[in-house]
């Protein structure tokens, strides 16, 4: 029952954006009348689809089917000149899209726990050209993509380790929480509704969250 309430909250959070194109049908009437109203709404859409197909243009359904393979269609080979720091926007986007597509495929296959291991120079914490901004952009790309599908995403950043004088933040994550807070999360207010930011720990687990992105890059080597 609580899950249904969460879905209801999700629907209410986005319903205002679609209010001008939403058609309501009273389902309490006899089913013949309800089906007739549904048919009257869908018939123009079906006719428009036929017109689009006949005119030689791609239908909306075709575009949706091709969405998953869009990155593959645009593939131009693995980027080179990765020693140029910072990487160009096109190179960074190539790897963001690559990680996103792999993650989406794994989730569609039923995987519930994933680990992203990417070692390009700007995302390799063992290198002196490691760039925290690139990591934050990758996280934003993943979070926004799943938020667009209606999922509630929590980005969990590894906090300080140890206690008292031994407490400290991993160098690879210094300032990352602040960066995430001030980043641009889109025009429709995803941050705070479908995307939230927290730390890693049992206290951060909430029932309404659909998925968690754990940010914890490490450069430790050996038996740690």
From TrEMBL:
Keywords in alphabetical order: Kinase, Transferase
Keyword Phosphoprotein: no
InterPro entries, per the entry: Chloroplast_ADK (IPR053021), DUF1995 (IPR018962), P-loop_NTPase (IPR027417)
DUF1995 domain ranges (all copies): 92-219
GO molecular function terms listed in the Swiss-Prot or TrEMBL record: kinase activity
UniProt entry tagged with the keyword Transferase: yes
PANTHER family, per the entry: ADENYLATE KINASE, DOMAIN PROTEIN, PUTATIVE (DUF1995)-RELATED
Protein name in the entry: Adenylate kinase
């Amino acid at each position: 029952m609580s899950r249904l309430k969460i879905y209801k909250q999700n629907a209410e959070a986005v319903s205002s954006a679609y209010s001008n194109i939403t058609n309501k049908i009273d389902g309490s009437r006899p089913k013949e009348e309800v089906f007739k109203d549904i048919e009257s709404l869908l018939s123009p859409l079906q006719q428009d689809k036929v017109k689009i197909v006949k005119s030689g243009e791609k239908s909306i359904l075709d575009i949706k089917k091709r969405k998953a393979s869009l990155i593959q269609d645009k593939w131009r080979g693995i980027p080179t000149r990765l020693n140029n720091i910072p990487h160009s926007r096109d190179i960074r986007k190539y790897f963001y899209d690559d990680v996103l597509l792999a993650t989406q495929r794994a989730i569609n296959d039923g995987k519930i726990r994933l680990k992203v291991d990417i070692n390009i120079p700007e995302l390799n914490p063992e290198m002196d050209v490691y760039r925290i901004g690139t990591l934050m952009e990758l996280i934003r790309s993943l979070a926004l993509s799943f938020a667009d599908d209606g999922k509630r995403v929590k980005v969990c950043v590894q906090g300080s380790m140890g206690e008292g004088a031994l407490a400290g933040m991993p160098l690879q994550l210094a300032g990352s929480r602040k960066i995430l807070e001030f980043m641009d999360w889109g025009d429709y207010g995803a941050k705070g509704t479908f995307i939230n930011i927290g730390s890693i720990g049992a206290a951060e687990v909430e029932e309404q969250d659909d998925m968690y992105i754990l940010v914890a890059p490490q450069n430790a080597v050996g038996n740690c």
